[in-house]
Amino acid sequence: MSDIMKMTVPGKAEYVRAVRMTASALASDAGFDIEEIDDIKVAISEACTNIVLHGAEDGSIHYDVAFELDDEKLVICVEDQGPGYDLEEYVEPVPGQIEESGGLGIFIIRALMDEVDIRSEVGMGTFICMKKYRHGTDA
Amino acid sequence: MAMSINANNNEAEGVWEFKLVGEVDISNAHYFKTQLETALAEKKQNIRIDLSELNYIDSTGLGVVIGCYGQIKKEGLSVKLVDPKPNVKKLLTISGFDKVLL
Question: What pLDDT, on the 0 to 100 scale, is given for residue A81?
Fold first, then answer.
């Protein structure tokens, strides 16, 4: 049995913090420790930031965030109907050789969360689903 | 804005001293960038940023720092980050920025 909470968020920079604070509150109440909560906050922010940066310039798009909490884990899925991108063109940055922030958001999400699924297609939007297991319940 | 930034020209050491307080994310990273650019336009010298009261930073904030580093490195100058909290240090380590910025 899991609890699900959904939000629809304007694709504007000023709302990313609200999503981050929501994720933080949910993770804290669910018993995740401070480091795990920080990981979740950064990962969800990076997913939202990715949408804001690559979405409509006037912030007119909205995106959906779904939180699913069960005994084992917190699952956060972020989905937009924005321009999307070709995942095969994504080049993962090499730590220590990064001279700019391009591609860093996705890299950080993958580093901080236990499981990450990213699907994107040009013209079809982007879907990012990330999981954080409660300590001691790693898959 | 959930972030404040203080700038001080330490003339004795020839360094711009910044102190970031609060959170840096996509909503205010441009303000942080403007502050760095304004200082460097006034005087090109090393930059030291105190992170002891920075609670959160994301890739847009890190991008500002690494962009600044890339810009002034060519002129033999440096950017140094001082006293990051564990969560901020973790991001610096993951990205590899710790090797050049700490």
Answer: 85
- Give the tokens for residue B18: 């910044």
Give this complex's ipTM: 0.89
Q: Identify the domain containing residue B20 by its residue range.
A: 3-95
Q: Measured between CA atoms, how close is B54 to chain A, in angstroms?
A: 13
pTM for this model (two decimals)? 0.90
CA distance A114 to A20: 18
Contact B25 A99 (CB under 8 A): no
For B55, which residue in chain A has the nearest alpha carbon? Answer: A38
Chain B positions contacting chain A at CB under 8 Å are 2, 23, 25-27, 56, 58-60, 62-63, 66-67, 70, 86-87, 90-91, 94-97, 99
Per-residue pLDDT tens digits for B28-45: 999 999 999 999 999 999
Parent domain of A77: 3-133
- Answer whether residue A95 is part of any domain: yes
Which ranges of chain B have pLDDT less than 70?
A: 1
Shortest CA gap A138–chain B (Å): 20
CATH code for the domain of A125: 3.30.565.10
